């Protein structure tokens, strides 16, 4: 999963400050997630609880940035360049993203309000599956819109 994050950053890094920042947040999210998952397998202690709170904060920040900054920008670009195919793909990707948002917010709510870590290992495992699917959908959205939009804009410059 971490390798996929790096390759996405390599493919789209530098394209947009917002996407760059967002991909850095994604990488931080994965590092914290992996460390917490490893720690939760071994021993649940106060440090684990603090890491869990940090993960919840990063998750909510990441999801919010996606919904309120990145996706809007991508869709606006697609609409401005009349990228109907990209917008269609983005719509399909957004269904996956939207359902993952619900799980992530439920996870956050659960662990912000309790110190009961009895099911944390199972919940982190499920969260890992959810965020992996989300990242794949986000990457498809970026590719279908931002990369395609850049290519469309470049074609318009050549034909002008």
Question: Gist?
Answer:
The protein has 160 residues and is an all-alpha fold. The chain is built from five helices and no strands.
Structural write-up:
- This protein has 160 residues and is mainly α.
- It has one domain: Regulator of RNA polymerase sigma(70) subunit, domain 4 (Four Helix Bundle (Hemerythrin (Met), subunit A)), CATH 1.20.120.
- The chain contains five helices and no strands.
- Helix 2 packs antiparallel against helix 5.
- The longest helix is centred in the last third of the chain and has 40 residues.
- About 3% of the residues have low confidence.
Low-confidence stretches: 11-15
CATH A-level architecture: Up-down Bundle
CATH class: Mainly Alpha
| Mean residue pLDDT | 83
If you consult CATH, what is the topology?
Four Helix Bundle (Hemerythrin (Met), subunit A)
Kindly report how far apart the N and C termini lie: 42 Å
Biggest beta sheet summary: none
User: How many beta-strand runs?
Assistant: 0
Q: What oligomeric state is this? A: single chain
Choose one word for the global shape: elongated
Structural class: mainly alpha
Instruction: State the CATH superfamily name.
Output: Regulator of RNA polymerase sigma(70) subunit, domain 4
Rg from alpha-carbon coordinates = 17 Å
Helix content: over 70%
Strand-residue fraction?
A: under 5%
What's the number of structural domains? Answer: 1
- Number of distinct helices: 5
Helix-strand topology string: HHHHH
